[in-house]
Design goal:
Strand content: under 5%
Helix content: 55-70%
Oligomer: single chain
Radius of gyration: 19 Å
Bound molecules: zinc ion
Number of domains: 1
Distance between the termini: 54 Å
Number of strands: 0
Largest sheet: none
Length: 183
C-alpha cells in the first residue's frame, strides 16, 4: 500500500540518522517514496490502459525515473536542510525503494523497473510480501484488511528493526567512548 511505502524513509531515518533529520527532508522523501503510485490514477483520469507502460507499475515505478527525481531534487537542497548530494541521494533512494518493494509482492502486476532501458516488467525471485487483490465493490473492507496485514508483516517489523539498529549504534558509540584511547 502507498502508506507503507511512505513510512520506509521514516524507518531509515530512525535507524541511521546521526543528527536530527530536517522535517522537510522527511516529508519530501515520504512523498517521493509513495509517488510512483500516482500512475494508479492515470487509468481513471487519463484513460491509460492497464497494460500500457504508463499504466500502474509502469514507467513511474522505474529506477531511472527515481534517479531523475533525485537530480531534480538536488538544487532544492537548502529547502530540505541538507547538502545537494544528500538531497539527491535521499529522494532517489526513497523513490527507487518503491519499485523494489512492489517487485517483492505476490500479486498485482510486475514492475517496469528498468524503463526506458527496457520495458520488460519484473518480479523479484523472492516475493515475501503478501498483497491480496483489491475490489472496488469492497474497497473499504479490502483497504482495512490490507492495512492490517501490512501493519503486521511490514510496518511493525520495519520499525522494530529500525529501533534495534538505532539502539545497537548507540550502544556501540557508548562502548567506543568508554574504551581507553591508545596513547
Ligand atoms: Zn506501486
Amino acid at each position: 500500500m502507498t502508506t507503507t511505502h511512505a513510512l520506509l524513509p521514516l524507518a531509515v531515518a530512525v535507524a541511521v540518522a546521526k543528527r536530527p533529520v530536517p522535517w522537510t527532508l522527511i516529508i519530501v522523501t515520504m512523498i517521493a517514496s509513495a509517488a510512483p503510485d500516482i500512475d494508479g490514477l492515470f487509468k481513471h483520469f487519463l484513460g491509460v490502459p492497464p497494460n500500457s507502460i504508463y499504466g500502474h507499475r509502469g514507467a513511474a515505478h522505474s529506477l531511472f525515473v527515481a534517479l531523475a527525481a533525485g537530480v531534480m531534487a538536488a538544487p532544492f537542497h537548502r529547502l530540505l536542510g541538507v547538502r545537494p548530494l544528500t538531497a539527491g541521494v535521499c529522494v532517489a533512494a526513497a523513490m527507487a525503494s518503491h519499485g523494489i518493494l512492489d517487485m517483492m509482492t505476490d500479486s498485482g502486476q510486475p514492475v517496469a523497473y528498468l524503463w526506458p532501458v527496457s520495458s520488460v516488467r519484473l518480479f523479484a525471485d523472492w516475493r515475501p510480501i503478501h498483497s491480496g487483490p483489491m475490489h472496488i465493490a469492497h474497497l473499504a473492507t479490502h483497504v482495512f484488511a490490507r492495512f492490517q496485514s501490512e501493519l503486521g508483516q511490514l510496518i511493525i517489523p520495519m520499525f522494530v528493526i529500525a529501533f534495534a539498529v538505532r539502539c545497537l549504534r548507540a550502544a556501540g558509540h557508548k562502548l567506543n567512548i568508554s574504551l581507553p584511547q591508545p596513547s
